Amino acid sequence: MKKITLLICLFAMSLGNAQYTKMGITGDGVGGWPDSPGYPTTEDINQMTSTDGINWTLENLVVGNGSFKFRADYTWDHNWGSAGNPGGFSPLTGTAVSNSGTNLALPVGIYNVTFNSTTLAYSFTISNIYPTISLVGTAVSGTDVFDADFDLGTTDGIHYSANGVHLYPAAVKWRQNHTWSATTNWGPENSADLVGTAVLDAQTAVSIAVEANYNVTFNLQTLAYTFTFPTIAIVGNATTAGWPLNTPGEIDPLVLDTDDGVNYYLTSIALTAGGNAFKFRADNAWTVQWGASTTPEFPSGIGTQSGGDINPDVAGNYSLAFNRQTGVYTFALLGLEQFQQSDVKAYPNPTRNNWNVSANGQTIEKIRVTDFSGKVVMEMHPNTSEAAIDASGLSTGMYFANVSTATGSKIIKVVKQ
């Protein structure tokens, strides 16, 4: 009996200290999920190395917007995620969780990675192969201290960015490697410009008027920059857009409006019931998302990071309000006839000059045109039943026109020849 017990213990210990032949890092934040659209392979592209099958390392891992996991031997039988992502991001050092329902997520950048497949301890260290570009100023610190830096991430040393940067109503500039010199700092041409081209050693700073979270981009070659509010979209099969396919570069079409980066809203959205569901997510990725945390979950509730699906119990057209900071959401049934998908037409399509848009006699309140990357290239408020979109100044390619009336919105694909 003692011999059998000893063998069982030894077998259990061998399982707990299993050595793996391969260890990968996989996910849409690091190149794509295996067997997903745009990544049709079972192998993990980011392979770590080890001399003992326990301690694994990988240098210069490129991390973009999205999430990822550790995975052994090309199988989901052995995978590790995060214990939690406060603020949408995982700690840079911590202990991974086996078969976790929460993926790892980090700010955009290049990292050196370590992972111990026995203790599950991991670390991500910024790889300093490119210059550091940071936001600096009282808008970063929220105090009178100007020398407060917030480092932007980069994967190529040219395009720098960060999502969800909390800025205060004050001044902000850019500088390189946390130093001041005539060749390593930039300011705007005009302090009021949240989108523009920076000027080397400018005596001006960007004036942030509204305290909020901002998505920030900066191009070290062209010096083009943007400060924009994070996008929040509603996704799921209870909407006309459906669930995201998780393809690289995918853009969520049902984007909420905002004036301050905190309070988001839609004047009308069509929802279906019958077991269909939806969630909210930020910036076209699952890194920051909100699902149900309260009962009942509809028509109002509090969304939490990685909460459950939200299930409408009555189909119809709703107005929607959502607070990004608190997660509180509220839907109000409009009681109007459903906005039919076939009501909106654009012609000629393709076109070289104008798209003529009609809404079957309904008044078109707003048309927002975005390119394939999700960038808004045009917005108009015609308040007529027909409107002409001037496409003559647009580049050749595919665009998306989000047409809104009092009873709903419809996204149609339009092509410029």
From TrEMBL:
Domain Secretion system C-terminal sorting residues, every copy: 347-414
Organism taxonomic ancestry: Bacteria, Pseudomonadati, Bacteroidota, Flavobacteriia, Flavobacteriales
Organism of derivation: Flavobacterium silvaticum
Alphabetical keyword list: Signal
Signal sequence segment: 1-18
UniProt-recorded name of the protein: T9SS type A sorting domain-containing protein
NCBIfam families on file: Por_Secre_tail
